[in-house]
Amino acid sequence: MLLEARGIVKAFGAFRAVDGADLEVTEGEIIGLIGPNGAGKSTFFNCLAGDAQPTAGEIRFLGQDVTKAPAEDHARLGMARTFQVPVTFEDMSVAENVMVGAFLRHGHRRDARRVAEEVLDFTGLAALADSPARSLGTPGRKRLEIARALATGPKLLLLDEALAGLTPAEVRLAIELVRRIKARGITIVIVEHIMEVILSLAERAVVFHQGKVIAHGAPRDVVDDPAVVAAYLGHHMKRVRQ
Amino acid sequence: MKQWPLAAIGLVLLLAWPLLAPDVFYQRIGALVLLAAISASAWNLLGGYAGQVSIGHAVYFGAGAYSALVMYTHFGWPPIAGAPIGVAVSCALAVLVGLPTFRLRGHYFSMATIAAAELIRILCTNWKLVGAAVGLMGPPRPRTVADLSFISPLPYYYLFLAVLLILLAATWQMQRSRMGYYLAAIRGGERAAHSLGVPVLRYKLYASLLSAGFTSVTGSLYAVMVGFVDPDSVLGILVSVKMVIVAALGGAGTLFGPLVGAAILIPLEETTNAAFGGSGTGITFIIYGAIIVLIARFEPGGMAELWRRISGWKARRRAA
What ipTM was assigned to the predicted interfaces of this complex? Predict the structure, then answer.
């Protein structure tokens, strides 16, 4: 078991954004986290990444208890993430952004630069390596988020709506990139509300609703689950299935 | 790097300045420019590179200045021998101030540093050991060369230049290392930095220790040159604000920004002080205020950004 989250609760005052959610991730799979807006996916996701501390529950990564560990410890153990709204280091070049990630496992500048160049090549950003990061548009920034995360040498990659806001052509390119990441042996958890992405990428889907997991299984089966349809998919799914 | 020829010209100019300067007044201004450049460069490590805008660095400046003259007054040491003690006190203070305040972001951090600095200033104003409100005096006339008490500004000029060059070399090394990248990441977005494995609090503390240590050295140098400290002149808020303005004017988070800022601001300040005499202090405040407004409105990146834009514009014109 790569990652195991049990009974995760995240409460803001009396409101429980996440209310007893479980998740198990085994090595080598792509898991999709779906659910309507406000279902608690992102909060749950932040708990997994160490960005927020769960009010209750336990998270184990590679057998270690990381429930209360800060995000940098998660990174060191091999968990990397992207942000829904990209947080680009604007004052740096594209390559320097990636080098920040590479410095986690490479103390020397030359090694960090080499790793960054390799990752930029892999993510198709090599041509932009020395451009200022602030010159990138949304698709470039989302790609840079992924490149930076990959440079930390992760075993598990958490993608938070990495494909939202992209055009259909860009989405296809991004799907292809995620597949190639998986082929490198990196396990992926992806939060997404574009159903096509989940259907074409994920081997398992976990559906959130009001802070709880209401269904999990193969994406095709999950979207047919009456509870899921009732919860939110509704007319949206009809369109996808046609 | 294409900036090296420019840096070399700058270095030659700095070395030759006392020979070029027409009289002692301008030599003294040169020494003051270097002193301001050292303190602003020290501030720049935390405020510029790490983006943690401290407006309380007078604490470290004051610790250095007081250490020098306290050691002289109570133990008869040469004032400069107090510098290591100032550095030790400053590093302890940096941890003490840093641990609670580094959890605050942006303006809240800046406000907390002001509060800490004012607290220390008021404490020192009432503390007999450090001369309370009256302050402390250095040796009235030099006992040995170690007192570093000279009539000519020249020895000070070259002493300050040596310290500045050491500080800039250290900063340049830092900038190219993992620490430089991590500080830039902290400035760019703490959440993202955390997620990439940057131990944010630890690196803020590293930057703070380096910054406080060098600021304290500046304070000691100031005390050695001026030979007098009191709470207002070394712990007042103007001391902190000046470091911020000098660095921001030249370009915060750049290697040479603080030096450029000092080379502009200090002569301006000294000539107005000379022209208006005792009433000049008021003018200083007006200049500071005007500079803050101008930088914030027109060029938040300071002179460095302006230079980058002009040279980029020239390069494009050449290409066209």
Answer: 0.91
